[in-house]
């Protein structure tokens, strides 16, 4: 691969329309079928459509269960396996719908004014626990009811968190709470209330209690705590499971006897993704960490541009295993650990990214969605120990058999930093590669900074390879998947401590002899955009750069991003008035006069994670300095343009990137 195209054509930006995404593999209670979500990009409608499919685990053709012109997702089997409940926006808002496994039309279960974001079946199948921002009073007063007085368009803000990327306008004062509703339909009742946001309800095996995630600390407006609580299913006082100012926990799951709850996270909320997450168990006594010696983070830190997210939880089997995802050196795997303590062991491994998984209630089978560098995703099934793995779908087989892809080659190289730490990376040779020729190179830098490039399909990278570029990508210091010390290494040293890692990777690839060192490009998004700006402010070796959803000035980023002030306070060693020098020293804009590389700035106008002013400041400064710079603004898009933006915009974004590199490399 990479040497010749053979009979295959080269990939184009528009090929995102030819890729089907599968996600959220849910194995049926009897372990014989897997339900999943299938998503396509609809060119005509310039939007996404998703449907629920079911495939037999013994093989056979997947069957489409829903076919509305909408987004159906989150399929969940009833405990007796006779029905599948799912979320759908077919009436405008996301509500729960139900379909019988024997077929027929789906029926609507919920009609909550604020919609539903998550739900879970009670163990007896009679009730669904839901998450909604609906307030009880709203059920009396429905849409269309006359307003008492004309509403003002002036926005009064009293809370420190008032904006969220992906939510247009400002956040309202409504809180997410747990509700219940009869699965057959009927009147919903509110289970939790108060000035808290409650999420992720999980029924106890006996059906009497619901565990959930919340922040009920006194200082919740200012901290990033995430606690585990449990509440009687009929409502009442919540009891603490794993709580307190040092809790950063989520994904609760009950033991089969209902005596314990496992969850994932760590005890340093302010650190967020900068340190490893673990699996914990609370059983009334002391909370125990089960993965202390693992040295890798629990969860999926992978980053790519071609996926549909599912966000799986932990699973606890009747024979006492807890299953969880682990990000490890560019792969996301499934591990298990004995709930009573013992060594975690690998169950689903390989050079790939396992995006989500579920276990059959008897703990005998696992269904999962995984992707690799040449295939974004398919549904798989295996036994509880990982044996007898089978692929159940081949959603992109036909398309990918018609296009030439480049197989990434892995490398490990000593950093240019004094410690010569080992840096892990990949290089993709261009399609049609001919030994002896020299090619332009593009360095791709990931965001987070605590994300992880993975062994996973990346449309942007494949496209660059198809257009004749050598593509280099690495997991420099700051990345997840290599342990806490590695991930937190860039604290208060963004750019300073990871640039030597990135340059070591570029130099290593140049040494291989097939790169033209006078035709180097660099690009990245978010923190990758920050690093793109940093790199061109510290070296002139790149001939073209594309900075996407970037940060240029930490001072003005502080307080204007939905990520919250806590992020900057941790990452840069304090708040601006405490460590002013850090904010200036670590801001790429401080080095703007050194930036000579032709720069394309791509930014979404509704990016509330990295507000567009970050791009504007950089653009204006470079214009004043008379540098080669262009600014491409995407209207009505947020921080996730490259992953979930309007399909037409996604194609245009890729065209701009290719166009810039073609012009300057
Ligand atoms: C540079 S500040 C915010 C960066 C952002 N971090 C978390 O949201 C980021 O880098 N995001 C990455 C994952 C991205 O958008 O690709």
Automatic annotation (TrEMBL):
<dbReference type="Pfam" id="PF26549">
    <property type="entry name" value="Tricorn_N"/>
</dbReference>
<comment type="similarity">
    <text>Belongs to the peptidase S9C family.</text>
</comment>
<dbReference type="Pfam" id="PF00326">
    <property type="entry name" value="Peptidase_S9"/>
</dbReference>
<dbReference type="GO" id="GO:0006508">
    <property type="term" value="P:proteolysis"/>
</dbReference>
<keyword id="KW-0720">Serine protease</keyword>
<keyword id="KW-0007">Acetylation</keyword>
<keyword id="KW-0378">Hydrolase</keyword>
<dbReference type="InterPro" id="IPR011659">
    <property type="entry name" value="WD40"/>
</dbReference>
<comment type="function">
    <text>This enzyme catalyzes the hydrolysis of the N-terminal peptide bond of an N-acetylated peptide to generate an N-acetylated amino acid and a peptide with a free N-terminus. It preferentially cleaves off Ac-Ala, Ac-Met and Ac-Ser. Also, involved in the degradation of oxidized and glycated proteins.</text>
</comment>
<dbReference type="InterPro" id="IPR029058">
    <property type="entry name" value="AB_hydrolase_fold"/>
</dbReference>
<protein>
    <recommendedName>
        <fullName>Acyl-peptide hydrolase</fullName>
    </recommendedName>
</protein>
<dbReference type="GO" id="GO:0004252">
    <property type="term" value="F:serine-type endopeptidase activity"/>
</dbReference>
<keyword id="KW-0645">Protease</keyword>
<feature type="domain" description="Peptidase S9 prolyl oligopeptidase catalytic">
    <location>
        <begin position="456"/>
        <end position="665"/>
    </location>
</feature>
<dbReference type="InterPro" id="IPR011042">
    <property type="entry name" value="6-blade_b-propeller_TolB-like"/>
</dbReference>
<dbReference type="InterPro" id="IPR001375">
    <property type="entry name" value="Peptidase_S9_cat"/>
</dbReference>
<dbReference type="Pfam" id="PF07676">
    <property type="entry name" value="PD40"/>
</dbReference>
<dbReference type="InterPro" id="IPR002471">
    <property type="entry name" value="Pept_S9_AS"/>
</dbReference>
